[in-house]
Structure to design on (360 residues):
């Protein structure tokens, strides 16, 4: 029996509540499927840890995490700790040091999910956004000159290396080829005359190796409009770190809200652990109330299953998420229900045990 070793960083706010349900679902899948199991090790890192120790994670935190096959992250951020500290000293630190240069965000309108767009069918919102995850606008490069003086100047430098740009674009081309789908690049070359001109050039260069892949290119402002007006234009999308961060939240909004938003941070070569997380944030206003929606964390659990080669079970978990939303018996208040976080996780486990398994 194969054992998948998972480091769990439940984090802040609602993180521990939703991650507990995701862990419950993964354990249930392993129990039902047989042939593999999960070994979870919990780390108490995050903002509460920071307030006690002055750091988001211990000095040897990355060394500890490197022993695992994957990281399952809940949420980062809480009042009293500046966002740039909570983000850069845990989440971005893990992404960069473990070279998790591929961020995968599914934007898919599941059956039963609420959609704010009028007269849109499920098949019109079904895309995967591939976001560059290690450099670009979030590289942290720049300077702060003459601080506090009238001539104060700040410089924020986007870093676009050929290696970083080419490998994310190539990953997206490979995925589009594998799935038989079109690939759309989103940039802003008309205004960003170095970084995005270079991005477009690399997209065209790599594309010559994939003549079978249909391609499109949009400016990010036009793409944002089409996400709302004509989402069916998009199947596989590749874009930079900043633009990917923004358009994936827009994608979540049209596909049921942040309560259904999941993301994977991948090191495709598997030299380092990859990391999986719900994207909704720590939501401190509803923490400890038992009403947080765990479906995004459970969708992240399905991505973990995919990552370990159990794609059939990953698809089964998505089927069950859909069934929960269709049945409406166990939905949290953000989706119009009265169920608790634990109720939703328990319902997912119950359905996994009883539904007809389609994908294995």
């Amino acid at each position: 029996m194969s054992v998948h070793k998972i480091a769990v960083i439940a984090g802040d706010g609602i993180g521990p509540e939703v991650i507990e349900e995701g862990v419950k679902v993964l354990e249930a899948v392993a129990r039902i499927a047989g042939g593999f199991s999960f070994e979870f090790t919990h780390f108490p890192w995050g903002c509460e840890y920071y307030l006690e120790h002055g750091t988001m994670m211990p000095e040897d935190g990355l060394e500890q995490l490197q022993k695992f096959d994957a990281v399952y992250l809940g949420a980062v951020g809480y009042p009293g700790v500046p966002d740039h500290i909570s983000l850069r000293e845990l989440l971005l630190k893990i992404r960069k040091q473990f070279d998790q240069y591929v961020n995968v965000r599914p934007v898919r309108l599941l059956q039963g999910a609420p959609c704010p767009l009028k007269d849109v069918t499920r098949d019109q919102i079904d895309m995967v956004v591939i976001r560059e995850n290690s450099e670009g606008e979030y590289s942290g490069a720049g300077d702060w000159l003459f601080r506090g003086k009238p001539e104060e100047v700040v410089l924020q430098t986007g870093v676009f290396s050929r290696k970083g740009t080419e490998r994310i674009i190539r990953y997206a081309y490979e995925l589009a080829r594998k799935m038989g789908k079109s690939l759309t690049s989103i940039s802003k070359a008309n205004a960003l005359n170095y970084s995005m001109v270079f991005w477009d050039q690399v997209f065209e260069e790599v594309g010559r190796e994939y003549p079978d892949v249909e391609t499109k290119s949009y400016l990010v402002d036009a793409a944002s409009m089409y996400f709302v007006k004509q989402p069916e234009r998009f199947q596989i999308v590749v874009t930079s770190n900043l633009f990917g961060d923004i358009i994936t939240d827009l994608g979540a909004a049209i596909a049921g809200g942040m309560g259904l938003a999941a993301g994977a941070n991948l090191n495709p070569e598997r030299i380092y652990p990859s990391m999986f997380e719900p994207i909704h944030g720590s939501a401190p206003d509803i923490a400890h109330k038992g009403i947080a929606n765990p479906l995004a964390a459970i969708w992240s659990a399905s991505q973990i299953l995919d990552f370990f080669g159990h794609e059939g079970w990953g698809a089964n978990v998505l089927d069950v998420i859909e069934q929960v939303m269709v049945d409406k018996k166990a939905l949290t208040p953000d989706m119009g229900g009265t169920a608790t976080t634990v109720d939703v996780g328990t319902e997912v486990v119950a359905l996994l045990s009883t539904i007809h398994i389609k994908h294995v």
Summary: The two ends are 17 Å apart (CA to CA). Residues 45 and 57 are 5 Å apart (CA to CA).
